[in-house]
Structures are given as C-alpha cells and as structure tokens.
Amino acid sequence: MTASSAIKQYAIVTGNYWAFTLTDGALRMLVVLHFHQLGYSPLQIAALFLFYEMFGIVTNLFGGYLGARIGLNRTMNIGLALQVVALALLAVPTHWLSVPLLMGAQALSGIAKDLNKMSAKSAIKLLVPGDQQGKLFKWIALLTGSKNALKGVGFFLGGALLAVLSFKGAVLAMAAALALVWIASLLLLKQDLGKAKNKPKFSALFSKSRAINILSAARLFLFGARDIWFVVALPVFLSSQLQWDFWWVGGFLACWIIGYGIVQSIAPILLRTKTAAAPNGSAALLWSILLALGTVLLALALNNAELMDMSVSTVLIIGLILFGILFAINSSLHSYLIVSYAKDDGVSLDVGFYYMANAMGRLIGTILSGWIYQSAGLVACLWVSAIFITLTAVISIGLPRHHQPEAH
Predict the structure, then answer these.
(1) What range defines the domain where residue 73 resides?
(2) What is this structure's pTM?
C-alpha cells in the first residue's frame, strides 16, 4: 500500500470512528438523563447498560476472529449498520419502551460499538510500517484521542438533543445521519483490509501472548476504575445532588471528555516520543501509579471539602481535571501497546481479545457504579476506583520493558 493510499484509508477509518462515536456518546447521555428523569434509580439505569457491556465482551472476542476471516472493512460496516438499527429501535412510542426492549437495543449498540472500535484500532496496525513505532504511537494516539474528544461532544449533543428534540426525535436524527456515513463507508473502505493470509482456527480466539494477556488484565481494571464512578454515579450526582440541569450535566461531561481526548492525542508530545522510539511497560507502570495517587487525593478532597473551605463542585471540577489528564495518558499508552504487541497477520485477533478485557472492565465498572453510588455515594465509588487502579499498577509490573515488534 502506498503512503497516500494508507493515509486515505486512515482518514476513512477515522471518519467512520468519529461519526460512530458521536452517536455512541450522545446515546449514553440520552439514556442516563431521560430514564433518571422518568424515575429510574441509579442501579436500574446501570442495569440498562448491562447487555451493552456484556455483548461488548462477546463481540470483541468473536469480532477479532471475524475480522481476520472476512476483513476489517466488513466488520466496521456491520458495526455502523447495527448502530443505525439500535437507534431506530429506541424511536418507538414511549409506552413501548420496556426494559427488555431497552436492553435489547443497548445490546445491539454494544455489539456495534466494539465491532467499530476493534476494526479501527486493528486497521491502523496495517497502515504503519513495523519499524516506525513512534509513528504508530502518534497515529494511535490521534485516533483514540480524537475519538474521545468527539465522545465528549456526543455527551453534550445528547443533553442538547434531549432538551430540544425529545428522546424520540434525538434518536431518529442520529439514525438518519449515521445511515449516510454507513453508505459512504460501503463505497470507500478498502475491501480486503485486515483479512488474514492464513484463515485462523477457532482456538485462536484466546491470545497465547504473555504480554497481551498481562496488558489485557491491566486494561480490565483500568477501565473498570473509570466507569465505577464516571458512568452512572457522576451524572446522577451532578443532577440530583448539585441540581444541575441537562444542559449543564451534558456540557460539563462533554468538556471533560473533550479535554481528556485532547490529552490522549498529544500524549506522544507530553511523553517526548521521538520518531523511532515509543513507550514500553515501564511507562505504563509509572503512569498507573500516578493515576492511583490522583484518585486517592480526589476522594480525600471530596470527603473534606468543608475543612478545605471549598465547595464540593469546585473540588470535583479540579479533581476531574487531574484524573482526566492522568487517565488519558494511561489509556493512550495502553492503546499503543496492544497494537504494537499484536501480530501483523490476523491483528484483529489480538486486538479483539484485549478489547474483550476492556469491555469486561466496563461491565464490572458500570454495575458497581450504580450499586456503590446508590448504597454509599460518590466518594465510596472513588475509593473502589483507586483500588482498581492499584491492581492495574501491580499487574503492569509484568509488562515487557523492551519490545521488538514484528516486521511487516
């Protein structure tokens, strides 16, 4: 593949990922705020995302296998189509929105999201020469960071659409826009991207690489730690305890995720990565330790806001900025390392296994977010989050300090 062709395919993959991410972030905020407004408890709202996360686990495991057999272009396009269907399902009259229907639509959305993400991350591996690890880190950081910045825009979009168009109008508008992106992707995305030369056997679903197994375990606890307090507990706390309206909740979380995405994008600059060099397991260990310390400080500060003569909202905003910067660097490092560790032939198998662990962490974090917040509050969520990040650091001790990627 020529350099210009690779850049064109990278742009198409990134554009698909961006469009999908906007609808994914908006839908999550729509569901949390709309059903909190209807009287659902935090634990009930968390349960609505149960299938979203559960099917994400299954999708990453089997989606990597599927991508290696039929090509990443097809798995990405299947993901876009499924998201359109999931959004359309939620446009039924309000009295039809039963819990089973909601969970079913969330299941489709979870499958769609992880097919799309696995396809995008795997495709980048194939577009960068194996001896240019610094460039690979920069491309992965840009893809991941821009995606999360747009997810933040999606959070704001979800709150705004709920206020302006109502729940039904919002999901219909997003379904129509994403359908156009899907049609464009069918026409433009390279047909054989990521298809393995040797058809993988079913037993190849589970990674045989020690480095990938360790990184996957670390990722599970890292993303579980974030979602324990961010997915349900934080937006419900802002809405019910601080009395913020939908615009403020959606706007604030949007700004946080946009900033988080920007930090992810510039992580190679912050870590001073040169063209031929890239971080290793030591960097992942160091930054996970810093994140654990930052989370402990935030929990202590929230618990002692009055003694510090500061309002809860001020402490929370400052703490979120600190957590966001540290978490963004951790996430960017992990996203690079999995693509670097993965085999060239059938890259989606290794990436799919890793994101299966990521989805499992999100599932655990989502359920704990509703349960812990409902029973003990936001500060308790932060303490459990700190424990999870500490486990991430302990596991990261086993990551390779020097990694020689396979040549293309």
Answers:
(1) 3-193+203-396
(2) 0.76
